[in-house]
Design goal:
The protein is built from 6 helices and 20 strands. The protein is mainly beta. The protein has a single domain, classed as Outer membrane protein transport protein (OMPP1/FadL/TodX) (Porin, Beta Barrel), CATH 2.40.160.60. It has a 14-stranded antiparallel beta barrel. β14 and β15 form a beta hairpin.
């Protein structure tokens, strides 16, 4: 019997690209911008004035301001909370508790008054979402984890006492493990099984990895001793992902048909370009305020093309329209030097989401958000310690579409209201040699 089906077949590889949640981070889509405690304390409004080795990430043109050799080690405790209230049943589901620790290492060295180099190791994108195996959207997503690692060498050149330029190379590695339940009863019904309703759910797991290369640029301009401007650009990176799809707990009656074979899969994933800019003004010797913006080119995530080595449910390829759009983020931050050793900071950020209403689904519950930050740093002769806290409030987002209908059926497309928040606690230690 010829069998055609548009949903189950490529779901495991699809998850690699569509299960991209903001649970792990506070960037639009699935970007991570917890790249330094001193920056988080100012809501990342640091593109024009940051005096920390984490400038390698935010604006490498600023590393010319750092003397000698400096190293910074940091990590951020990310505690996400997310819930879903079903339009179908009124029931509320909560994601399983998880804590994440995206960490960073930076190093800078001043060769001369005009030439400096830096190296950053950080996590630019990430995902961590876990839902119960019995929740309403289990056929769309249950457990999802995506980790990326970037190594970014940069060099900065001071053109004049007031202008610096920088450039670097981005080497990125991606690793992922993604799971969802298999609607065995739904597949059995389409195959004509007389007792398909007796078939229990199975499980499907995708594990894959890949790598890619990009570049980044930076500019820093001091218009006056008090007014400075900074801008940075990080290019998009295309990652060719190879992985394995494994089915388990499939009922014998369904497994014997051979329509759900374990197989290799391949998909190209493009991570977006990012542009940030800011203007900082030193109102006094103690107080500096910066306002800034960030653009992320998520329109590169317009559709998905997936290839499978073996036919699953008689399909070896599929194209899925996603239609994500570019996003804008706006922030303001301030730092006040209370004493020679102690500085206090605060900041606010507003961020747009990248996912349109017609393709919004539970594995990508991206939403507009507000981020409120406080922080402080204390310096010694050869070291400094920065601590910060951020609270991200994700605005409620409603799913009212048919995404997931093919694989889940109307009763399991998880239409309803998604809400959540993030607690971010960050620490960074800088050592000067």
């Amino acid at each position: 019997m010829k069998f055609r089906y548009s949903g189950f077949a490529l779901a495991p590889v699809l998850m690699l690209l569509v299960v991209l949640s903001s649970s792990y981070s506070y960037g639009a889509g699935f970007g991570i911008f917890t790249q330094g405690a001193k920056a988080l304390g100012q809501a990342n409004a640091v593109v024009a004035h940051l005096d920390s080795p984490s400038a390698v990430f935010f604006n490498p043109a600023l590393i010319n301001q750092l003397s000698g050799t400096q190293m910074e080690f940091g990590t951020t405790l990310v505690v996400p909370t997310r819930e879903f209230k079903s339009d179908l049943t009124g029931e509320t589901y909560h994601n399983e508790d998880n804590v994440y620790f995206p960490s960073t290492v930076y190093m800078t060295h001043a060769f001369t008054d005009r030439i400096s180099a830096g190296l950053g190791c950080f996590v630019p994108f990430g995902l961590g979402t876990n839902w119960d195996d019995h929740w309403e959207g289990r056929y769309i997503a249950t457990s999802s984890e995506i980790q990326t690692y970037m190594v970014n060498p940069v060099i900065s050149y001071r053109l004049s006492p007031r202008v610096s330029l920088a450039a670097g190379v981005d080497f990125l590695w991606l690793d992922t493990t993604l799971e969802q339940r298999v609607n065995s009863a739904g597949i059995g019904s389409l195959l004509g099984f007389s007792k398909a309703y007796e078939l229990s759910d199975g499980n499907q797991k995708f594990s894959g990895d890949g790598n890619g290369v990009g570049y980044n640029l930076g500019l820093a301009v001091a218009f006056t001793d008090k007014l400075t401007f900074g801008a940075s650009y990080r290019s998009k990176v295309t990652v060719d992902i190879d992985g394995d799809v494994v089915f388990s707990d499939i009922p014998d009656a369904l497994a014997s048909t051979g329509i759900l074979p374990d197989t290799n899969g391949n998909a190209d994933m493009t991570l977006p370009a990012q542009f940030t800019a800011g203007v900082a003004y030193a109102f006094t010797d103690q107080l500096t305020v910066e306002v800034g913006m960030r653009w992320e080119g998520w329109s590169c995530f317009d559709s998905l093309e997936i290839e499978m080595d073996q036919a699953v449910l008689n399909q070896t390829s599929q194209t899925i329209e996603k239609k994500w759009h570019d996003t804008w983020t706006y922030n303001i931050g301030a730092e006040y030097q209370l004493t020679k050793q102690l500085a206090l900071s605060a900041g606010y950020l507003y961020q747009e989401n990248a996912v349109p209403d017609d393709t919004f689904e539970p594995s990508t519950p991206d939403s507009d958000c507000h981020l409120f930050c406080l922080g402080g740093s204390y310096g010694w002769k050869r070291a400094s310690l920065a601590l910060s806290y951020g609270y991200q409030l994700n605005l409620d987002r409603d799913k009212d579409n048919n995404v997931g209908l093919a694989s889940a059926g109307e009763a399991n497309i998880a239409n309803g209201t998604y809400s959540g928040n993030l607690h971010l606690v960050s620490a960074s230690l800088t050592v000067m040699f």
